[in-house]
């Protein structure tokens, strides 16, 4: 970590370097405690899990959150195909090996969700259990075409929104440079714009992500993200600076390239053990007011319910940035699930 990088109290910054990849990560808690690993999504950092790391460390767990490839102090790459799920899972296998434990509870959010789900489906021997915030199993891991089939066509008529709320993903595929350039133009404004709490009035309304192609880009073709007031309920000024500085340093090419591997990721899903069926404990926490990963009324969670034999579902009344907007609610759902479904994993903290 650079000297000016902010590390929240109680957390430690670390770097794992192997011959193939570098993974930076934050951790907390006893090194020999039960292992729980949190994987972040777009366009975040290990910092996104600060509330969970501190909480679970206090419970005696070894809580770890990596900067995923393309982010923070982890390796960045210059080709889209370097951000395919198969390679990211190799990163995670290196990480868990370095931590000296065979198995972990994996918790993902956004693009970190398919990472957690793929660990469970491809390497169940390295998983105690798996949890996901906002993104259900067997959705985006199977590729963009699969999730488009689950779109609510009452809300998103195919003639107007061929890809439904996933129109923005098509825009990446069709206009990657145009999608990325205005983000790079002002990374701090981008972070300030997107990290916001839920607006309950948006429930059941068309997501802004469905309008990206129609509007010719994220910001209607303007050169950069607009400046809006920071939402203090989600991130502090110091945290905003960490996110913004990191994205300014690395650029959005890596984070956005995660969207450019749908076909490769779909092929990778086909190689999951047991036909992709998950028998270990699985938790899905839906965000009530997440209009893009809408899992309250849409069919998005249906495949998950078919593939998981030990599934728990919960709802948190938040927007997409659940772990940062409603950390106490997220922690409560994770703890109650672990206590019920993974007896003995939560042990009294040592004094």
Structural features, described:
By secondary structure, the protein is α/β, with parallel strands linked by helices. It has one domain: 3-Layer(aba) Sandwich (Rossmann fold), CATH 3.40.50.1820. It has 13 helices and 8 strands. It has an 8-stranded mixed beta sheet with strand order 1-2-4-3-5-6-7-8. Helix 1 (50-58) links the parallel strand 3 (35-39) and strand 4 (62-66). The radius of gyration is 19 Å and the shape is globular.
The H-and-E topology, N to C, reads as EEEHEHEHEHHHHHHHEHEHH
Task: Examine the coordinates and then state which fold CATH places here, giving the name of the CATH topology.
Answer: Rossmann fold
Q: What portion of residues is helical?
A: 25-40%
Main sheet specs: 8 strands, mixed
Q: Tell me the fraction of residues in β-strands, as a range.
A: 5-15%
* Coarse morphology: globular
CATH architecture: 3-Layer(aba) Sandwich
Helix/strand-derived category reads: alpha/beta
How many beta-strand runs? 8
Please tally the helical runs, counting DSSP H or I stretches of 4 or more residues. 13
Number of domains: 1
The strands making up the biggest β-sheet line up spatially as 1-2-4-3-5-6-7-8
Distance between the termini: 30 Å
Report the radius of gyration as a whole number of Å. 19 Å
